[in-house]
Write a structure and sequence with these properties.
It is a single chain. By secondary structure, this protein is mainly alpha-helical. It has one domain. It is 78% helix and 2% strand. The protein has 21 helices and two strands. The chain has helices at 7-20, 26-54, 76-97, 102-106, 109-125, 129-148, 153-184, 189-198, 202-220, 228-234, 238-262, 268-292, 296-317, 320-351, 362-365, 367-380, 387-402, 405-430, 442-464, 466-481, 483-491, and strands spanning 57-60, 71-74. A two-stranded antiparallel sheet has the order 1-2. Helix 8 (189-198) packs across helix 21.
Length: 493
């Protein structure tokens, strides 16, 4: 049964290798990719159900047990994120069939798509820091290829910045891993959690904690390490943009989730207060960008930064309600950001421009796109009963319990600004007088709309059914608030 824990990594690996041999056969690639994505969802759903009934699952690769071997760990947090990743992967894959273009499809788009899923799923499931680094690199190498695939001028320019930032980040990651190993003599996260309590060097541990925050903050686009994101995420085609926006920053956030609840929680007055300050500044910067631009892609990109800040703020509060809210919110944001990128992609495809001032009146010819966008928009803003509401409410409740009133005020104001930014798209893009004759037929639009509708429906059900989902969230929070649960499962104590 524990072999199941590695399947979300092995299955896309097998698929990606298989697809390489059929690089020129586009329809076969699509069919294999679609089948693989459906199986991936089944595997990850079964993993969630199994973890819920049996508890944390672990697998020692090569029969080497923790803390000496490579350990794959599926707790409820990682299992839920793997399931969400595979659902988003399926939706973006379906959208790609009608939008990515045959040229990119012939140049290994689908194999690289699978390799990116390997990195994301592996990062969620690994139980040690070195293999977290390895899966980060797998994810990043795939993202480099996806970013430059097509070879447009803006892609090549932004890919250079993206690669430089991530090479520096990865180098610093290795340095911090080596430093931590020199202090504790282990890289297994459960073993680190136990040994940190035995090391009477709080100053060094706090320095290491901030070092890892810099590493993961670069991946997750926390203030002031976010500057690379708006340009890099703007450059690739819409399916790749949706994949990046929904998944890549969330791997950085997950890493903060894991390390700041399992390892670096002994000096919260310093580490978590610092985290809260960065979260608030991240939200403010995201809000400024989201309301300043008329470019639909830039507006959604800066909303990524706002969501990163909200989730990180919940982690910094570090109580049951706030962590529950952060988990709900990260799942919500992954789903709804992917949907919004796909929807603005349809708007751009119809109008031929990404500037709102060149759009208008789309609702008359494409009402289904308009109302799908409207539902996604109010969900993003956290309007009840949609999926963004419950997570944000729990974060605010946790903040009130902690007395973090400044953070509460910033999160509340940001919700209004998020609503303003997405309603600006809705009002200027869909209402008013059409600025041109929109020639794209509803038949073509509807094919692209289906995956976005799928994500929005799942998000709506997630919001309405929060009470049914909450036992799974509670189980995830239990292992975050009580590291000994995770430690005992991994170290077999």
């Amino acid at each position: 049964m524990n072999n199941l824990t590695f399947m979300p990594v092995l299955w896309p690996l097998f698929t990606g290798i298989l697809l390489i041999f059929f690089a020129k056969k586009i329809m076969l690639q699509r069919g294999i990719s679609l089948f693989s994505s459906l199986i991936g969802i089944v595997i990850s759903l079964y993993l969630v159900v199994t973890v819920h009934s049996q508890g944390i699952l672990t697998l020692g690769v090569g029969s080497w047990e923790a803390p000496f071997g490579i350990v794959i760990v599926a707790d409820m947090l990682s299992s839920l994120l793997v399931l969400t990743t595979n659902i988003i992967g399926l939706a973006i894959l379906l959208y790609s069939f009608y939008s990515i273009g045959e040229e990119r499809e012939r140049h290994y788009y689908y194999p690289v798509f699978q390799f990116l899923l390997i990195g994301v799923n592996g990062a969620f499931l690994t139980g040690d820091l070195f293999n977290l680094f390895v899966f980060f690199e797998v994810m990043l190498m795939a993202s480099y290829v996806l970013l430059v695939l097509g070879g447009t001028k803006i892609q090549l320019r932004e890919s250079l910045k993206y690669i430089i930032v991530n090479v520096l980040s990865s180098s610093f990651f290795v340095i911090m891993v080596a430093y931590l190993y020199s202090v504790l003599g282990t890289l297994n996260m459960a073993d680190i959690s136990q040994r940190i309590t035995e090391v009477n060097q709080p100053g060094i541990i706090s320095v290491i904690a901030i070092g890892f925050l810099i590493v993961f903050g670069l991946k997750g686009a926390i203030f002031p390490l976010f500057q690379w994101l708006p340009g890099s995420y703007y450059a690739p085609p819409i399916p790749v943009m949706a994949l990046f926006g929904a998944l890549l920053t969330k791997v950085g956030i997950y890493s903060i989730f894991r390390t700041y609840t399992l390892m670096f929680y002994h000096d919260q007055d310093f580490t978590h207060t610092f985290l809260a300050i960065l979260a608030i500044l991240t939200i403010i910067i995201g809000v400024i960008g989201a309301i300043a631009y008329w470019d639909v892609k830039k507006i959604i990109i800066y909303n990524i930064i706002i969501a990163v800040g909200v989730i990180i703020f919940g982690i910094s509060v570090m109580n049951e309600h706030a962590l529950s809210g952060s988990i709900l919110y990260i799942i919500h944001d992954m789903l709804i950001k992917a949907a919004l990128f796909l929807l603005v992609g349809i708007m751009i495809k119809i109008s031929g421009s990404d500037d709102l001032r060149d759009m208008g009146g789309l609702i008359k010819q494409y009402p289904a796109v308009a109302w799908t966008f409207f539902i996604a928009a109010i969900s993003l803003a956290g309007i009840p009963p949609f999926s963004g509401f419950a997570g944000k409410l729990l974060i605010l409740q946790g903040a009130a319990e902690k007395g973090a009133y400044l953070g509460m005020a910033v999160v509340l104001i940001s919700s209004l600004m998020v609503l303003y930014s997405v309603m600006k798209i809705f009002m200027n893009g869909f209402w008013g007088t059409p600025k041109a004759d929109y020639a794209l037929t509803n038949g073509k639009v509807n094919k692209m709309l289906v995956p976005a509708v799928l994500l929005v429906i799942i998000s709506v059900l997630f919001g309405i059914g929060t009470e049914s989902v909450y036992p799974y969230i509670t189980q995830a929070v239990d292992s975050l608030m009580n590291p000994e649960i995770y430690n005992k499962a991994v170290l077999k104590e």
